Amino acid sequence: MAQVTRQQLDEAIGSFQYEGILTREEPYGSGHINDTYLLVFEIAEMGTLKVILQRMNKDVFTDPRSLMENIVGVTSHLRKKIICQGGDPDRETLNVIHTVDGDPFYVDSKGDYWRSYKFITDATSYDQVEKEEHFYQSAVAFGTFQCLLSDYPAETLHETIKDFHNTCARYEAFEQAVLADRKGRAKEVEKEIAFVRRRKETAEYFSRLLEAGKIPIRVTHNDTKLNNIMIDNKSGRGICVIDLDTVMPGLAVFDFGDSIRFGASTATEDERDLSKVSCDMHLFEIYVKGFIEGCQGKLTEKEIELLPMGAKVMTFECGMRFLTDYLEGDTYFKIHREGQNLDRCRTQFCLVEDMERKWDTMKEIVRKYGNAGR
């Protein structure tokens, strides 16, 4: 997308139901998809009010109207649940600020889509696991997200990114990339290609369970990284799940699994020294404990049993996507150096192998906490 112009920003700011005098505006956050700004307003004797203003990336999210319909529906549901439980709905879920015309988004004169949220004060999101407690709190928060939305009709949600966690479709895309070999790279990654092909059944695992009706479709977040949890600065508690753009119908085990893939790894996602890459069983246990606690018995016995498989499949899928992108010439994931997507692929496959070695341990940890979660 083209850069935001001054005219666009002023137009958007003037189109939402803001109060007070704008005293500060600045780019905000570390996201790479949407253009995000923090706005600060002075309201007479009442002090300051902070809000988030975002231009949605319509190249990534091609149907912003449906996306916002998802967000409004889910946050309205969460708000009601939080109020019933005596919580603070202004801090424990995102609050959409409407336009002056009463809409949850604004379309500017260039056809770009904007939205705005109340800023969650006195809370922080972390890009990396700095404290084990933060990882635990993120697990509780994402589990609570599952619990509060367990009665939300997932089938009414729009699919904001088609086949996002359809591992079978990802496998087919991988095979097509190998066949096309647009950049002539297939020869140098024969080992990685063979790794994927040996695990074709892993790609098909959950689709078969779904077809057999053995696991339910739920409302899922689909981007369960640590930095999508706001952690209260005073209590240290994970209070709010943010970045709801990828909220769609999906599998709870995938939300769990993506957190493990990212948060329980002992190395960075593009680490070249694979001897540093492993799945930390201590962090795995911390997350299992928190996630099951947060779900408060809403997961089925089968879902709990499948949590390790969710971690393996999400890690495998991500590695396969990195490999596919490398074969296609690095067209989807941003790279900062040659071969970075291949390095990313290799770390994920290394994690998969480590999970396979530790499979009995992972299953035992889940059994330990699973009995308490039912």
UniProtKB/TrEMBL annotation:
Domain of life of the organism encoding this protein: Bacteria
Gene3D superfamilies associated with the record: 3.90.1200.10
Keyword annotations: Transferase
An MF annotation (GO) of this entry: transferase activity
Aminoglycoside phosphotransferase domain ranges (all copies): 154-266
Keyword field contains Transferase: yes
One Pfam entry name: APH
Protein name according to UniProt: Aminoglycoside phosphotransferase family protein
Organism: Suipraeoptans intestinalis
